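Z., the sequence and structure:
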Amino acid sequence: MADEMVLRAQSYLNTTYRGKLGIEPLIENGVTSWKVMFALTRALQYELGISSLSDTFGPTTLNTLQSKFPTINSATSNKNIVWIVQAGLYCKGYDGGAYDGVFSSRVSAAVTKLKQDMGVASTYPGDGLVPKVFKGLLNMDAYVTVNSGSENIRAVQRWLNGSYVNRRDFFIIPADGHHSRDVAKSMLFAVQYELGMADGTANGVFGPGTQSGLKSHTVSTGSSGTWVQLFSGGMVLNQRPVSFTSSFTGALATAVSDFQSFVKLPVTGTGDFSTWASLLVSYGDQSRNGEACDGITLITPARAATLKAQGIKYVGRYLTNPVPPKDDKDPLRHKAIQPGELKTIADNGLRCFPIYQTFGRDASDFSYPLGRAAAQSAINAALDHGFKPGTRIFFAVDFDALDQDVSNSVLPHFKGIQDAIADDGNRFAVGVYGPRNVCTRVGEAGHASASFVSDMSSGFSGNFGYPMPANWAYDQIVTRTIGSGDGAINIDVNIASGRDTGQNSFNTPRTALPDTNLASSVIGAMRTDVGKYMESIGFPNDGGVRTYGHETCFRRVVVEWDTVITQLAYKYKMRKALIQTSCYWEMRHIDAIDLGADAVIRTKYMAGGSFEDSSTGIAQMFGRTAVLAWNYAIQKGYATGTIRNVGSDKDKFELWDKLREDDSFAIQSVPLVHLWNAGGAPGNSPAETVLRPMSLDYTESEIYQILRRYQGTADSEATEHAKKRLALYQVMEKYNSISRNV
């Protein structure tokens, strides 16, 4: 909702400082935003005579303000400075007075109220606006509870502000009732100040000095004072049901015991070092030994013995490796579970919990279609390795997902995972691996039943300031090398809660067999599953605005041409699903415009005009692409025929027209395009990187590249479509794998 006083601030900034602040004019919409606060910060810097303006209210701004205007009050004669104060107050929801550059009684009352809300009124008495309060004014932090904030948390925030704001590196934090990265860091500063660290030494990092100092500050029943306030504040910020207090009561001791039990610490009811650590940083006390671990190293009998001697019961291993190893020295060559490894794990009395991760390094790798693809890929891989129904697969979110990333990308992704798992008959359970906020929100949305928390990544915003998820199963706290000689192994140490215990009994692994004809028993389920997936991404089974519906495409591509596609896949050592996916996907996209364009192109060329290439036929292939792919296949010995001139309209049209009229020829051309693309698409512009030779064990990244390259270049819509086609591929592969393992 537009605020008239914010609108006036935006207008004034645009008019008074036009061309002076180094930014584009503000949109005058009456809405407070970081852009408005940045503009006010730059205006202040301009008034202070700072030559290099920036969005940051940093040391230069603070020190210059301290030097020129140590206190802004009714005696301040610089009207522009006071006007900036008034605008900041209005943007924060306070009464800024008459917008006249006068520090009036209304401005005085607002500044006084602002300091009270911050918790610094006792530290900075009166109505004067000092530099650190000014810095707190020109940001988007709130100093009253917002969005159902906790008054208990707000009490901690205000106490921290009032107690430590005079220290050099401590700045006013929000007092909005919500834990956050800034609040968590301020707690570490407070601990360091109470340990006696000087300004410049205290840095808000949980380092060796801080840890050493805390070990001599255990608090327990009967303790009182500042250390109890800090400890109870940590409990409050971790959403434990306690009051913010300076007295360690029996009730606090009971709550501490409950917290220790929850995070699997020794239950003492006291604020010992390990408990302090768990309250202050996500990874807690990294000297702890855990009952679980995960890693990318092959578990040999010697390494299994090391793990067992360390007290480890549960081992997390990856279902797939998205990138093929470069060579035998590649540290990731054994990231995926290796043949015979699960038997070694079980034979040595250990249990394995599977992890599924491809890349997942930013929000673009997460969406509903990619979630479905991930789930089906994980199912296929779990079955290949021999995991039995009932196993929980932990799907990774291995990046610093902001809250909006979780809402817009991660949650839809896990809805896709959940739907695909359900469509598979819920043979496997869903877990989530990621930062605390990701795990909590995915669990609360009902998309995962347990969490594997990447607490070792303490700098992730999704860990800093968030409590441990209620459904945590594994808590990743530190990387450590254990054992020696052949038994040496580098692992991520995990604390185990007991909510997941992995598996210690496995089916016989499935081998990488060539594809066969589809078993008649799976065709009905495959038809349903493919149709259900396409509907989930906006393709109704009746075709909608497209020419062909699901039944027609599935029958013509998957059923009627099954034997031909099987033979082509066998001949070229590729998975049938690559051919099925490209043909089915392209046929589902054909519409009346495509068919009309084909007719116009053919008529024009037959009348003596030039050939205007386009995608055509059941596989929607360009004539030029067909010429390049067939030439490549002939030169490599994959096919026989005549080399054609890619610059000749006649040669391109002849193949184009055959693709349009002859489904058999179109389908035979698809695997040749895949082989050509794997070879780097020679003759195409731009050329592609060369992949390893086509193989039945192509990784997901290689499959994705083949699917993407079929449709176009990396900077086209082919990239987005390939993410959706990857899920379709996994559905196709599911039923092909069943058929070849019958």
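Residues 292-496 form a domain with the TIM Barrel fold (CATH 3.20.20.80). The chain has a mean pLDDT of 95.

Let me know what you think.
H.
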